[in-house]
Amino acid sequence: MYIRPIKKTDDAPLAKIIRTNLEFFNLAIPGTAFYDPELDHLSLYYGKSPRRNYFVGIENNELVGGIGIAEFLMDKNICELQKLYLKDDAKGKGYSHQLMNTALNFAKEAGYTAVYLESHHRLTAALKLYQKYDFKILAKPLAPSPHNAMDRFLLKEL
């Protein structure tokens, strides 16, 4: 797999990957990324700021997943890790680690001091990945979020 920044042509296949994953985990509900207004136009959303980026993984010329970094609490210089999802046939190959490393390196280079994320207890593989990267579990969200169906909140100091 190789990794590159998102392009407009990635928007539709990426939205499908994200929605398919959320449907599988019974998370196609309000308060999740499933209903994010920018989900069908992620290239536009992540292109609005130099401190945002979304990286896609490509295997055999096919988009297999991605991961994003965007501003979160700017007064505290904290970004948010967003929308780490892979196609089913790309799981178990170490791609999530490659995407995570790319996103965390971008966050450091962009000058963030910490990375926040919201997840759900049903996303057990993702939660294990975050623990491997030293994300610490928080008792509550750092700030109000449109993803109010999420029930796991994590933070990693950079």
Automatic annotation (TrEMBL):
Protein origin, superkingdom: Bacteria
Domain spans labelled N-acetyltransferase: 1-155
One GO MF term attached to the UniProt entry: acyltransferase activity, transferring groups other than amino-acyl groups
PANTHER family cross-referenced by the UniProt entry: FAMILY N-ACETYLTRANSFERASE, PUTATIVE (AFU_ORTHOLOGUE AFUA_2G01380)-RELATED
Protein name as it appears in the record: N-acetyltransferase domain-containing protein
Species this chain originates from: Enterococcus canintestini
